[in-house]
Amino acid sequence: MAAVLRTDTAPEAVDLVKTYSAGRKKPPVTALRGLSFAAAQGTVFGLLGPNGAGKSTTVKILSTLSAPDSGSARVAGIDVATRPDRVRQAIGFVAQKPGTDPMGTATENLLLAGRVHGMSRRDATARAGELIDRFGLTDASKRLVSTYSGGMARKLDVALGLMHRPRVLFLDEPTTGLDPQARSELWQEIARMAGDERMTVLLTTHYLDEADHLADRLAIVDHGTVVAAGTPEELKSDLRGDAVRVELAEPDSGARAALGRVPGLREITMDGCTVHGRTDDGARALPPALAALEAAGIAVTSATLARPSLDDVYLRHTGHSLDTADDKGPKALEEAK
């Protein structure tokens, strides 16, 4: 379903299509296939999907770093194609790769960013000091960035994106590679940006817990299109009952048929050695499910019951789990880019 462009939304995309050349003698790679979504102002909006799903391509288009083959987009009510200069003034962009000069200090990096955005030296100095204090980098502000830990360097990347007080901030996989403490600290800061400052944050992530914890609303992206959208709770509530997950000793195509005969067990899918299903009463359905597999001569290594998760939502709409999609890694898209 296509979104309708409105001026009261922050980032918004309508039917975006983007294809990359994969090189000589290789077919082109389609990164986006009519992708649409709309994010409200002052919220954290998440694009959740595996690596190669099209999330970064979407952010590049919204931030004017790339142009779509077709479709349209606005950021803070500004058309990305016709007024890219105004879009750049309204946004901050934190890419997956570091944007800092490792041979400069935090203060030097921030001052340079401020001057590039047209700030006076006085204003840039004041803003740099404010952000250094806010991100807990005061003691390290005069050290070379090359000496920073991963968490410290990532905080500085986000500070650079905030230097000119943007209306919309794009965070492309902001916590990849961070340790749990650094991730938690950055989560707190992202929530504060939207909550206290009413900034709109568009977050791309392949971490289920990150999307569940941070996003006010999210769009699940698979193979360049949005397959589901809503709040995390809305998406999970659409799945009735319990999720059943059975790990097999080895892949066996007969498992699906065996479980299909168990009363009350539905939506049975196989993903390698893992069999997924849903049931209204997990405690009642699991024993006969295990008995059915045993009768079919299929060895089981583990079985679990759980309330619906975002991975279950992803599985429902794509037929495979997010973890498996990440493991497979669509390499063709990355090579094309």
Task: Provide a quick synopsis of the model.
The chain has 337 residues and is of the alpha/beta class. The protein contains 13 helices and 14 strands.
Structure in words:
With 337 residues, the protein is α/β, with parallel strands linked by helices. The protein folds into two domains: 226 residues, Rossmann fold; 101 residues, Alpha-Beta Plaits, CATH 3.30.70. The chain has 13 helices and 14 strands. The strands form three sheets. Strands 6-7-8-3-9-10 form a six-stranded mixed beta sheet, sandwiched between helices. Strand 4 and strand 5 form a beta hairpin. Helix 3 packs across helix 4. The longest helix has 18 residues. The N terminus and C terminus are likely disordered.
Shape, principal axes of CA atoms: elongated
Instruction: Kindly identify the CATH topology of the largest domain.
Output: Rossmann fold
The assembly state of the depicted protein chains is single chain
**Secondary structure category:** alpha/beta
What is the domain total for the residues?
2
> What is the CA-atom radius of gyration, in angstroms?
23 Å
Order of helices and strands: EEEHEEHEHHHEHEHEEHEHEEHEHHH
Measured by DSSP, the beta-strand proportion falls in 25-35%
> For the record, what is the CATH homologous superfamily label of the largest domain?
P-loop containing nucleotide triphosphate hydrolases
Distance between the termini: 27 Å
Low-confidence parts, pLDDT < 50 over ≥5 residues?
1-7, 329-336
Helical fraction equals 25-40%
CATH class of the largest domain: Alpha Beta
Kindly report the average pLDDT value. Answer: 88
